[in-house]
């Protein structure tokens, strides 16, 4: 039986790929001087990732968790391969984000710019323009909230980094929290980061269950 009988995690992805700021992180904005420096460093860290793989654990607002492997390739490509038994795939081909639900043979599509993950996939566009530093209680943690105040339906994403000299730009993305326009929250935590490997573009194609010929999408 599918782990997504009630599809709570899937719906969170479909609605915006969630993350709001956990209460422990949401305090007053940092001083301007500190914000400017760390915001630039966060953007440099994201730009410094050409390819990356990491194991992830995704948790929805009800506490339901699933795991898998995330593969990222710039510009704009990402794939969430879920654990065995989860009939779901989330993938971006650089232009659009797709959620493929093989349990019910459905595909949902939306432009990358309409997803909070646009901040992760296109830092040149989103992080500098819409991002602000959120002060944390740990000097080695950098937290960036990204939202477009003119388009609240796009949701909010908070990217949380750990200072790590071995990571691109000196910051390692440890997790993000996404909050969609309906206040559905999803947290995605990363571990076992690997950088700079060869990743074929075919990784970001998918089998479209709506096609009887089952050609790649």
Protein described:
With 217 residues, the protein is mainly beta. The protein has one domain (12-204): Lipoprotein localisation LolA/LolB/LppX (outer membrane lipoprotein receptor (LolB), chain A, Clam), CATH 2.50.20. It has helices at 8-15, 32-47, 118-121, 127-130, and strands at residues 51-60, 65-73, 77-82, 88-93, 96-101, 106-111, 131-134, 141-147, 156-163, 171-179, 185-195. Strand 2 and strand 3 (77-82) form a beta hairpin. The protein is globular. The chain starts with 7 loop residues before the first helix and ends in a 22-residue tail after the last strand. The relative contact order is 0.24.
Task: List strands and helices in order, with pairings.
Blueprint: H1 8-15, H2 32-47, E1 51-60, E2 65-73, E3 77-82, E4 88-93, E5 96-101, E6 106-111, H3 118-121, H4 127-130, E7 131-134, E8 141-147, E9 156-163, E10 171-179, E11 185-195
Antiparallel strand pairs: 1-2, 1-11, 2-3, 3-4, 4-5, 5-6, 7-8, 8-9, 9-10, 10-11
CATH topology, anyone? outer membrane lipoprotein receptor (LolB), chain A
Number of folding domains?
1
The pLDDT mean sits at: 80
Query: What ranges have pLDDT less than 50 throughout 5 or more consecutive residues?
Result: 1-35, 213-217
Main-sheet strand order equals 6-5-4-3-2-1-11-10-9-8-7
CATH homologous superfamily assignment? Lipoprotein localisation LolA/LolB/LppX
How much beta, percentage-wise?
Answer: 35-45%
Q: Indicate the CATH architecture.
A: Clam
Distance between the termini: 25 Å
Which radius of gyration do the C-alpha atoms yield?
17 Å
Helix and strand sequence: HHEEEEEEHHEEEEE
Structural class: mainly beta
Looking at the structure, what is the overall shape? globular
The helical percent reads 10-25%
């Amino acid at each position: 039986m599918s782990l997504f009988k009630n599809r709570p995690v899937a719906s969170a992805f479909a609605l915006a790929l969630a993350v709001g700021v956990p209460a422990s992180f949401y305090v007053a904005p940092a001083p301007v001087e500190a914000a400017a420096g760390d915001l630039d460093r966060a953007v440099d860290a994201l730009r410094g990732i050409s390819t990356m793989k990491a194991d992830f654990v995704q948790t929805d607002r009800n506490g339901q968790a699933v795991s898998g492997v995330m593969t990222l390739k710039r510009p704009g490509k990402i794939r969430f391969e879920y654990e065995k038994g989860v009939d779901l795939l989330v993938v971006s081909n650089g232009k659009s984000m797709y959620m493929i639900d093989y349990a019910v043979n459905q595909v949902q599509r939306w432009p990358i710019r309409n997803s909070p993950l646009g901040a992760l996939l296109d830092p040149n566009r989103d992080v500098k323009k819409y991002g602000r530093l959120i002060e944390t209680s740990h000097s080695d943690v950098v937290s960036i909230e990204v939202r477009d105040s003119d388009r609240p339906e796009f949701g909010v994403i908070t990217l949380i980094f750990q200072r790590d000299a071995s990571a691109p730009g000196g910051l390692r993305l440890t997790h993000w929290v996404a909050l969609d326009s309906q206040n559905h929250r999803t947290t995605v935590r990363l571990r076992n980061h690997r950088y700079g490997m060869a990743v074929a573009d075919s990784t970001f194609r998918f089998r479209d269950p709506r096609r009887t010929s089952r050609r790649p999408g």
